[in-house]
Amino acid sequence: MTGYQHIPHGFEPVFDERSRVLVLGSFPSVLSRANDFYYGNPRNRFWRVMARVLGEPVPADEDIPAKRRLLLAHGVALWDVVQSCDVRGSSDASIKNVVPVDVARITSVSPVRAVLCNGGTAGRLYHRWLEPQSGLAAQVLPSTSPANAAWGEERLAAAWSEVLSPLLP
């Protein structure tokens, strides 16, 4: 297990009693953990894609309250599938010894009617660990990670919009 560390998630989910869509990543990257919030790598296109789909300005990288407001104003919750795991750096492919989050923490207080996974790893982990508890099937969307170089930002926004827009109020 050279290079592996057991890492806890480190920060709270974003949700409130009006959240109708739950977006799940796999596990925070090294930069996200350092910034203490989701999608902290400025090369990750998540915040630009979400702002575009939601028809809002892109929040500044360091403006965590604006990022929370962006999601909550549109009924979107955000979390990751993994509460803690053994991982090498930011590599989703290296995730082992998963301790999943307690998804009921959100679904028991929010009227979540759709789960969207940001990438294949989040989708596989959700299907294995969380779908049996939530009873909600997830739709897997293309990853906004810079590692998914085959998908440009425009194409990502179109794919995310096609799925997310009909779920919004």
TrEMBL record:
<feature type="domain" description="Uracil-DNA glycosylase-like">
    <location>
        <begin position="12"/>
        <end position="164"/>
    </location>
</feature>
<dbReference type="InterPro" id="IPR026353">
    <property type="entry name" value="Hypoxan-DNA_Glyclase"/>
</dbReference>
<keyword id="KW-0378">Hydrolase</keyword>
<keyword id="KW-0326">Glycosidase</keyword>
<dbReference type="InterPro" id="IPR036895">
    <property type="entry name" value="Uracil-DNA_glycosylase-like_sf"/>
</dbReference>
<dbReference type="Pfam" id="PF03167">
    <property type="entry name" value="UDG"/>
</dbReference>
<protein>
    <submittedName>
        <fullName>DNA-deoxyinosine glycosylase</fullName>
        <ecNumber>3.2.2.15</ecNumber>
    </submittedName>
</protein>
<dbReference type="InterPro" id="IPR005122">
    <property type="entry name" value="Uracil-DNA_glycosylase-like"/>
</dbReference>
<dbReference type="GO" id="GO:0033958">
    <property type="term" value="F:DNA-deoxyinosine glycosylase activity"/>
</dbReference>
